[in-house]
From TrEMBL:
Keywords: Oxidoreductase. Residues 19-374 form the FAD dependent oxidoreductase domain. Residues 732-816 form the Aminomethyltransferase C-terminal domain. It comes from the Bacteria. The lineage of its organism: Bacteria, Pseudomonadati, Pseudomonadota, Alphaproteobacteria, Hyphomicrobiales. Residues 378-432 form the FAD dependent oxidoreductase central domain. Residues 434-711 form the GCVT N-terminal domain. InterPro entries: FAD-dep_OxRdtase, FAD/NAD-bd_sf, FAO_M, GcvT/YgfZ/DmdA, GcvT/YgfZ_C, GcvT_C, GCVT_N, TrmE/GcvT-like. GO terms for molecular function: oxidoreductase activity. Belongs to the GcvT family. Gene3D superfamilies: Aminomethyltransferase beta-barrel domains (3.30.70.1400), D-Amino Acid Oxidase, subunit A, domain 2 (3.30.9.10), FAD/NAD(P)-binding domain (3.50.50.60), Probable tRNA modification gtpase trme, domain 1 (3.30.1360.120). This is FAD-dependent oxidoreductase. The keyword S-adenosyl-L-methionine does not apply. The keyword Oxidoreductase applies.
Length: 824
C-alpha cells in the first residue's frame, strides 16, 4: 500500500504536540473535538487559511441518518445525535433543525428500495414512515405527487449550517485544550528516524507523534510526500439557490428525489436545488484556482440542465423561480463511494480522514468519533473495515483510473443501489490470463478490486448485459444452471483474483502461530482455514494457510480484502521477527474444479492418485497436469468435492485447455462468481465483510472449531476470546435462515424478527436454486443468550421492505450440514 520514503533528519521544531491534525474543515474539526472530549489535550489543528475554507463552507448541510447498510447507518445516525446537542455543549449556534427528510420514489423499484432502507431504520429505533403520494403532498404542498409511487418520511433527519456546525466543533475542541492554528499552510512534511512526523509550515516546523491528514481534496498530495497512497479525486458539485419562494417555510422537509438526481432544501426562505447528476465532471487538481481560500468554479448550465429539469417536474413552482445563485464547488470522491479513515498501512501513527464524496457533514461527526477512538485505543472500536484506508489496491491511486471512475461514482449517490451492481467505468484494469477463454464461453464480467471476473455465463450466443432487479435479475436463469451443474456434475471457476501472499523467514511459523487463531504449525502440504484477530477477539482476516516448507507459508484471501489483509500482517511484523511478506497474486492463476465428478475429470489429466486416502481433504500437493506442474489444493468454497489449482501464470491457458477438454464428457460447465455466492451460502460458508467483521468473534460466527486454544505461544486476541467462551451462553450468534415462501429474494440487510422482536439482520442472502427458496445468514442478539432452545422454540420472520415472511432458523447449514459432500 505504501512506498516508504527515506527518513529525513529532525529539524529543531518550533512546536511539539502529541497529535497534529492538518485540515480545518468538518473532518479535522470533528476528530479534534472527539479526541479532546476523550481526554487528549496536546493537540494542534492546522488550517492553511481559515476554518471551513476548503470545501466545508459550501456544503449543503443535509442530515440523513438512514443508509443502505446497517454499518453506514451506525455512523450516520450519530450525526443527528451530536448536532442536536452541539450548541448546548459549545455555546455556538449551528442552525441544526429536525425538519425531516422526505424521500420520494418515482418508480416501483425505487419504492421497494426505499422501503428496504426504512426497515433498516427500525433496527436503530429511528422513525421512518412509508407514506402515500397524497400524504407526501401534505408534508410538501408544492410537490407534484402525480409522478411518484410513494415516499418515506424520516422526521428525525434535517439540516444544519455547515460553517456554524464546523465552528461549534472547533470551539468545543478549543475549550478542551486543542490549539487552533489558522493561516498555517503546510509546505512540506516528513518522518524522522524515531518515527515522529515533522510538518514545515509558513510559521515554522511543527513536530507530532501522531499525524492526522484531514484536508479534503489536498489529502492525496500531502500524503504522497510520506509515501502514502490515498485514492481520492476531485469533481465539480453543483447547486442553485432560488430567490424567495412562498412555499419555502422554515420547517419544510428536505426533499430527496433520487430518481430525478436532485435534493431540495429550504434556505432562509429560498430553495436550494442540489444535484448528484447521473454522470459527474471529474476535475484534475491542476485546474483548481491556486492560493484561493474559498474556491468557486465556473457555471455550467448545460450540465445542470437535466437535474434542474427534474427538479421542476417534482416541484413545478420552480419553473417560475428566479435564480439568486449558481454555485459550483469542488468535492473529493473515492473509487467505491465510501469515505476513508484509519492508519495508513506501513506508516505508524499516520492517520487520514478524507474522501467524503460530498457527504462530509452527513458523516463527519460519526467518522470523527470513530477515528478518535481508533487513535486513542490503537485499533478501531467499531466496524470500520468498509471505510478503512487500507482497503485499496496500489493501482487505485492512478489518476486516469480515478478520473474516469469519479464521473460514475458521483452519480451513484442517487442511482438505484441494485444488488450486485457492476461499475461501468475504469474497467479492464486487471485481467486473468484466462480472460479470453471465459469471453468465448459467454461470460458476463464483473469487477472486484480491479479484476475482471466472470459473474455468469450466457453461453456463446447469449446476451451478457446485466438487467438488475430486486426480484429476479436476468442472470438467475443462467446462475441456476451453473449451480445445478456444481451439485450434479462439475463446474470450473476462475479464482485467480484471490489474494496470495508468501510469508517467509526463520520466524515465519512462530509469527503466524501468534497471529492466527488456528494451528498453522502443521506438516508441509497441510491446508489450514484460520483467522487473525484483534485485541477484542474480533475477526480481522479470513484466510487459508498452505504450509509449503519449514519457513514458507502461502496465505490465500479474498480478492476484495487482500490489500487490507496484507496491511494487517505487515503491521505486526516488528523488528523482533525475521519474517517477510510478498504479494504473489499475479504469479499464479487459479482454476477451481468443483463438483461430484471433479475427481473423474482431474484423473483424466494427471497420474496423481486422487483417492481420499492418497489425497485427503484440506491437503495440498504438487501435481502434473498436461505439461505443467501445479499446486493442487483439495478445498471447496461451494460445498462439493473439488480442487483449487494454483498454476504458474504462463502455463494457465494450457492447463485450462487440458482440463476443459477432459471435462466435456462429464458435463463440465463454466461458472461465475454469482454461482459461487449462491453455492457457498447454501453451505453457510462465511464471507469476510458480510458474515465476518472486526466486531464479530469466531465463537459468535460459529467458527470456534478453527481455534487452537492450547498453542504454547497463545495468539493475538486469545484472552478476549477465552473470556467470551467462559461466559457462555453467547448473546450474539450467526444463524442460518430459510424462507418458507419460495418467492421473496434475500440479498442482505433484511431484518430478522424473533417472536415479533427485531433481533438482527441478514448479513448475506441468496436465492437457493438447490433448495428452491431464499436462504441467508445473520447475527441474532438476545440478552439471555442465543441458545439452541431459543432457535428451535421461537417464531422467526424476515422483514423485506416492510413485509414479514416466515422462516426456519438453524445453527447449521440447511444444505449438507455435516459437510459430507466435500469429503467424499
Amino acid at each position: 500500500m505504501t512506498t516508504n520514503p527515506p527518513f529525513r533528519p529532525r529539524e529543531v521544531p518550533t512546536r511539539h504536540h502529541e497529535i497534529v491534525i492538518v485540515g480545518g474543515g468538518i473532518a479535522g474539526a470533528s476528530v479534534a473535538f472527539h479526541l479532546a472530549k476523550n481526554g487528549k489535550k496536546d493537540i494542534a489543528l492546522l488550517e492553511r487559511n481559515t476554518l471551513t475554507s476548503g470545501t466545508t463552507w459550501h456544503a449543503a448541510g443535509l442530515i440523513m441518518q438512514t443508509r443502505g447498510t446497517h454499518a453506514l447507518t451506525e455512523i450516520a445516525k450519530y450525526n443527528a445525535e451530536l448536532y442536536a446537542t452541539l450548541e448546548a455543549q459549545t455555546g455556538q449556534a449551528t442552525g441544526f433543525k429536525r425538519n425531516g427528510t422526505l424521500g420520494v420514489a418515482r418508480t416501483k423499484e425505487r419504492l421497494h428500495e426505499t422501503a428496504r432502507n426504512a426497515s433498516i431504520a427500525k433496527s436503530f429505533g429511528l422513525e421512518a414512515n412509508m407514506i402515500s403520494p397524497s400524504e407526501a403532498k401534505k408534508l410538501y404542498p408544492a410537490l407534484n405527487a402525480s409522478i411518484i409511487e410513494g415516499a418515506v418520511f424520516i422526521p428525525g433527519d434535517g439540516q444544519t449550517n455547515p460553517v456554524d456546525t464546523c465552528m461549534a466543533l472547533a470551539i468545543g475542541a478549543k475549550k478542551n485544550g486543542v490549539k487552533i492554528l489558522e493561516n498555517t499552510g503546510v509546505i512540506d512534511l516528513w518522518r524522522t528516524a524515531d518515527g515522529h512526523y515533522q510538518v514545515r509550515t509558513n510559521s515554522g516546523v511543527i513536530e507530532a507523534e501522531v499525524l492526522v491528514l484531514a484536508c479534503g481534496l489536498w489529502t492525496r498530495d500531502l500524503a504522497s510526500k510520506l509515501g502514502a497512497r490515498v485514492p481520492i479525486y476531485a469533481a465539480e458539485h453543483f447547486y442553485v439557490v432560488t430567490e424567495a419562494m412562498d412555499f419555502a417555510s422554515p420547517n419544510l422537509p428536505v426533499l430527496r428525489d433520487t430518481d430525478g438526481h436532485v435534493y431540495l432544501k429550504e434556505d432562509t426562505g429560498k430553495i436550494l436545488v442540489g444535484a448528484f447528476e447521473p454522470w459527474g465532471k471529474p476535475l484534475p487538481m491542476g485546474k483548481l484556482p491556486k492560493e484561493t481560500a474559498f474556491i468557486e468554479l465556473w457555471e455550467d448550465w448545460e450540465h445542470f440542465e437535466l437535474p434542474m429539469t427534474k427538479a421542476i417536474e417534482i416541484v413545478p413552482d420552480l419553473a417560475n423561480a428566479g435564480i439568486a445563485k449558481f454555485f459550483n464547488g469542488p468535492e473529493s470522491f473515492t473509487p467505491d463511494l465510501l469515505f476513508m479513515i484509519g492508519e495508513v498501512p506501513g506508516s505508524k501513527n499516520l492517520y487520514v480522514s478524507t474522501g467524503y464524496n460530498s457527504e462530509g457533514i452527513e458523516y463527519g461527526a460519526g467518522a470523527g468519533r470513530a477515528l478518535a477512538e481508533w487513535i486513542i485505543a490503537g485499533e478501531p472500536q467499531m466496524d470500520t473495515s468498509f471505510v478503512d484506508v487500507a482497503r485499496f489496491h496500489p493501482f487505485q491511486i492512478n489518476k486516469t483510473y480515478l478520473h474516469d471512475r469519479t464521473a460514475e461514482v458521483l452519480g451513484l449517490h442517487y442511482k438505484m443501489h441494485w444488488p450486485s451492481y457492476q461499475p461501468e467505468t475504469a474497467r479492464g484494469v486487471r485481467k486473468s490470463v484466462l480472460h479470453d477463454r471465459w469471453e468465448k464461453l459467454g461470460a458476463s464480467f464483473g469487477e472486484g478490486m480491479g479484476w475482471e471476473r466472470p459473474m455468469w455465463f450466457a453461453g456463446e450466443e447469449g446476451r451478457t448485459k446485466n438487467v438488475y432487479s430486486y426480484d429476479e435479475p436476468n442472470w438467475f436463469k443462467y446462475t441456476s444452471q451453473e449451480c445445478h451443474a456444481a451439485r450434479n456434475d462439475a463446474i470450473l471457476l476462475d479464482q485467480s483474483s484471490f489474494g496470495k501472499h508468501l510469508v517467509q523467514g526463520r520466524d515465519a511459523c512462530r509469527f503466524l502461530q501468534w497471529l492466527c487463531a488456528g494451528n498453522v504449525d502443521v506438516p508441509a502440504g497441510k491446508l489450514v482455514y484460520t483467522h487473525m484477530l484483534n485485541q477484542k477477539g474480533g475477526i480481522e482476516t479470513d484466510i487459508t494457510v498452505n504450509r509449503l516448507s519449514k519457513t514458507e507459508f502461502l496465505i490465500i484471501s479474498s480478492a476484495t480484502v487482500h490489500p487490507r489483509d496484507k496491511a494487517w500482517i505487515e503491521k505486526h511484523i516488528t523488528g523482533e521477527w525475521n519474517v517477510t511478506i510478498t504479494d504473489v497474486t499475479s504469479a499464479y492463476a487459479v482454476l477451481s474444479l468443483q463438483g461430484p465428478k471433479s475427481r473423474e475429470i482431474l484423473s483424466q489429466v494427471t497420474d496423481t492418485n486422487l483417492a481420499n486416502e492418497a489425497f485427503p481433504f484440506a491437503t495440498s500437493q504438487e501435481i502434473d497436469i498436461g505439461y505443467a506442474r501445479v499446486i493442487a489444493n483439495r478445498l471447496t468454497y461451494v460445498g462439493e468435492l473439488g480442487w483449487e489449482l494454483h498454476i504458474p501464470t504462463e502455463m494457465a491457458q494450457h492447463v485450462f485447455d487440458v482440463v476443459w477438454d477432459a471435462g466435456r464428457a462429464f458435463g463440465l460447465k463454466p461458472a461465475g462468481y454469482h454461482a459461487l455466492e449462491h453455492l457457498r451460502s447454501e453451505r453457510a460458508y462465511r464471507e469476510y465483510q458480510l458474515d465476518l467483521t472486526p466486531v464479530d468473534t469466531l465463537l459468535e460466527a460459529g467458527l470456534g472449531f478453527t481455534v487452537d486454544w492450547d498453542k504454547e505461544c497463545g495468539f493475538l486476541g486469545r484472552d478476549a476470546l477465552k473470556a467470551q467462551k467462559d461466559a457462555m451462553p453467547l448473546r450474539k450468534r450467526l444463524v442460518s435462515f430459510k424462507l418458507r415462501d419460495p418467492k421473496p429474494v434475500l440479498f442482505h440487510e433484511e431484518l430478522i424478527r424473533c417472536d415479533g422482536r427485531i433481533v438482527g439482520y441478514i448479513s448475506s442472502g441468496v436465492k437457493s436454486f438447490t433448495l428452491g427458496t431464499s436462504i441467508g445468514m445473520g447475527y441474532v442478539s438476545d440478552p439471555a443468550g442465543v441458545t439452541k432452545e431459543l432457535i428451535e422454540n421461537s417464531r422467526w420472520e424476515i422483514e423485506i421492505a416492510g413485509k414479514l415472511y416466515e422462516s426456519d432458523a438453524s445453527l447449521r447449514a440447511f444444505f449438507d450440514p455435516n459437510g459430507d459432500r466435500a469429503k467424499q
